[in-house]
Amino acid sequence: MTEKSTISELKPLLIQKVSVQNKGLKLETNEPHHQKTVSNEKTGTVYGAIANLTNACMGAGILALPYAVSQIGWLFGIIIFILVGLISWGSLQLLMLCSFYTKQYTYEELARYVIGKKMYVLVKITILTITILASTTYLIIIGDSIPKFFESFEKTSDTVLTSRVFISLIAVSFGILPLSLMRKMDHLKFSSSLSFIAISYMVVVIIINHSETNIKNLKTYAFNFDFIQFLTAFPIFIFADSVHIISVNVIKDLKNASEKSISKISIITLTSCNAVYLLASLFGFFTFGDKTPGDIIVGYRKQGISIIIARFVLTIMAIVSIPIFIFVTRESINVLFFKNKPFSWKRHILLTVAFCMIITTLSLTLPEVQFISALTGSTASIITVFIGPGFLWYHLERNKKRKKHQILGLVYIIFGLAVMFISTTAVIYGHTIKKKKQ
């Protein structure tokens, strides 16, 4: 059974479900009332959707991926890239098409519509966990990069410009907060493009600064397999491709949405992201070998102009990425608590400020990027990439009484639960051992 044939079979079922529930009536989309009162016009483009999804997908994960590759070897790392990429694409395609057919524009509403209220609370908690931890990771990046940037020009590191707290507050107040106050996610497409350029530049810097010595020893670094190391590295790959919760939201503003445009969005997004991931991971690993740090940019000790600029553009990437997660969180809260209430700028601003305060506090207290990426990947990301689509697939096929297709959904669920339990245990265990050695 191919992915395409399965999706095609799901379409009639979804349309039938909508038509039965709305027979003889005008189809309601279950969109929050406040969205209808503000504007019903869809202005989003395929380019804007790809830009936003690529930006959301390709961010903090790219910094920890070289470390993940160092734990398993470059050849095995390529295999894992391909495997995780294919699985992520399949579930991403399924989720976006289900959202398109059912007119459900948040991950939670889609889960409630297809599965019912049983999974609604779990999905809601999962999404909040991902958005908060992902945003926190980006803010940690800002706190790590900007002080290093100013240290390049200062003779001492004991200044306000190298203070993590001061830099985080400035970035949130004058960068993240203003961007997050926009009403539509599609308005971020230009800043998202800027983020993609920033990432591309950073990859070029990593390639330029690679070590030829390590490349000459490719056979030595091909496999570095250790079971515990593999279990702690695997979630980082999943976290890097975890864009599923945001994929549903971009369809809401998409003008002239169709199966073709949705397929184009999912393919281009994950292909471009994984291509960049692969280059950054391999050359980053070739630079540091088995001593690759959890945050690749922190490993560069020399203060060359290319490294200085890389830290600056990395900060830009983080600043324009966080608002996308704030959009998703704010929309979820509006759907959950204020679904039938008109749009309110007061509520809009308060929710945004509250989220910014939470991630700022967490970024100043939680450990390094690598640990958060692994922990998020082994818990919340696995739920949205494996377990969630598995439940969705299983329940849709159960209505059609197709047992073979139900089994495929169960495989997703069982695999996700097993990976989540084992990887989470390994990540926490590995982090504990690392702290004891320090």
Automatic annotation (TrEMBL):
<protein>
    <submittedName>
        <fullName>Transmembrane amino acid transporter protein</fullName>
    </submittedName>
</protein>
<keyword id="KW-1133">Transmembrane helix</keyword>
<keyword id="KW-0812">Transmembrane</keyword>
<feature type="transmembrane region" description="Helical">
    <location>
        <begin position="188"/>
        <end position="208"/>
    </location>
</feature>
<feature type="transmembrane region" description="Helical">
    <location>
        <begin position="349"/>
        <end position="366"/>
    </location>
</feature>
<feature type="transmembrane region" description="Helical">
    <location>
        <begin position="119"/>
        <end position="141"/>
    </location>
</feature>
<dbReference type="GO" id="GO:0016020">
    <property type="term" value="C:membrane"/>
</dbReference>
<feature type="transmembrane region" description="Helical">
    <location>
        <begin position="407"/>
        <end position="429"/>
    </location>
</feature>
<feature type="transmembrane region" description="Helical">
    <location>
        <begin position="228"/>
        <end position="246"/>
    </location>
</feature>
<feature type="transmembrane region" description="Helical">
    <location>
        <begin position="372"/>
        <end position="395"/>
    </location>
</feature>
<dbReference type="GO" id="GO:0015179">
    <property type="term" value="F:L-amino acid transmembrane transporter activity"/>
</dbReference>
<feature type="transmembrane region" description="Helical">
    <location>
        <begin position="308"/>
        <end position="328"/>
    </location>
</feature>
<feature type="transmembrane region" description="Helical">
    <location>
        <begin position="267"/>
        <end position="288"/>
    </location>
</feature>
<feature type="domain" description="Amino acid transporter transmembrane">
    <location>
        <begin position="43"/>
        <end position="428"/>
    </location>
</feature>
<dbReference type="Pfam" id="PF01490">
    <property type="entry name" value="Aa_trans"/>
</dbReference>
<feature type="transmembrane region" description="Helical">
    <location>
        <begin position="161"/>
        <end position="181"/>
    </location>
</feature>
<keyword id="KW-0472">Membrane</keyword>
<feature type="transmembrane region" description="Helical">
    <location>
        <begin position="46"/>
        <end position="68"/>
    </location>
</feature>
<dbReference type="InterPro" id="IPR013057">
    <property type="entry name" value="AA_transpt_TM"/>
</dbReference>
<feature type="transmembrane region" description="Helical">
    <location>
        <begin position="74"/>
        <end position="98"/>
    </location>
</feature>
